[in-house]
Amino acid sequence: MQIRLILLDFDGTLADTRRANTLAYVATLREAGYTLTEEEYAAKYFGMRCNEFLTRYGIADPGERERLRLRKIALYPAFFDTVRLNRPLWEFCRQFRAQGGRVWIVSTGSRANIDNAMRHLGITVAGQRTGSTGAATSGAAGRDLTGADEAWLRTAGTATIDAGTPTHATVTPEPGEGPNGSVDGILSGADVEHSKPAPDCFLEAMRREGCTPQETLIFEDSEIGLEAARRSGAAYFRVTL
């Protein structure tokens, strides 16, 4: 299978941000006088987009929801010491880029949150300042996905964060890259009209790179993300952290 493009969800796939997100929401609501525990958020609301979560929590005023959303973004970096990179998956992606493939982050999360977390992890956007979107590119070289690759990826997809040594050699950062390398672009929920489980975000990344679903491999963890991947027509792996 010739793959030219890898698309990665961020939260729960490339990085374990669950605790950081939970603590940021708890701190935001407590600061505003609301009562929310880590256990309640994890059981009832984890995985929801911010506006949906705040609405279901019972905050009806759109202005108040927006104020809380912005405050959560501001508080989020204070909890980055709990964020962990999925190193086996990321090292595979860096090898893929080194051989001419393209790698994008495609997430329903806030762009500001993604940028802040990636900066903490030492990952930049290739050839751009962090925070800008990737430019369309055609003719990515890609690589054939071998049986050994597929077997290893199935293991990496369920790997414990930071566990073990990747079977693919570590790549030295290029000049101008972050210490942990780069992606070629980022798409967030604000970049498309219909978020996951609609496939729009994945299809838009393919369009920008001039790739077909048959040339694309997607990594996702959530049910809505996996549904979007299925509907895009691309091959995909489920990631469990």
UniProtKB/TrEMBL annotation:
GO molecular function: phosphoglycolate phosphatase activity
Family recorded in the similarity comment: Belongs to the HAD-like hydrolase superfamily. CbbY/CbbZ/Gph/YieH family.
GO cellular component, one term: cytosol
Highest taxon above the source species: Bacteria
Gene Ontology biological process terms in this record: DNA repair
UniProt EC number: 3.1.3.18
Catalyses which reaction(s): 2-phosphoglycolate + H2O = glycolate + phosphate
Entry protein name: phosphoglycolate phosphatase
Pfam family, one: HAD_2
Provenance organism: Alistipes onderdonkii
InterPro entries: HAD-like_hydrolase_sf (IPR050155), HAD-like_sf (IPR036412), HAD-SF_hydro_IA (IPR006439), HAD_2 (IPR041492), HAD_sf (IPR023214), PGP-like_dom2 (IPR023198)
Pathway(s) it belongs to: Organic acid metabolism; glycolate biosynthesis; glycolate from 2-phosphoglycolate: step 1/1
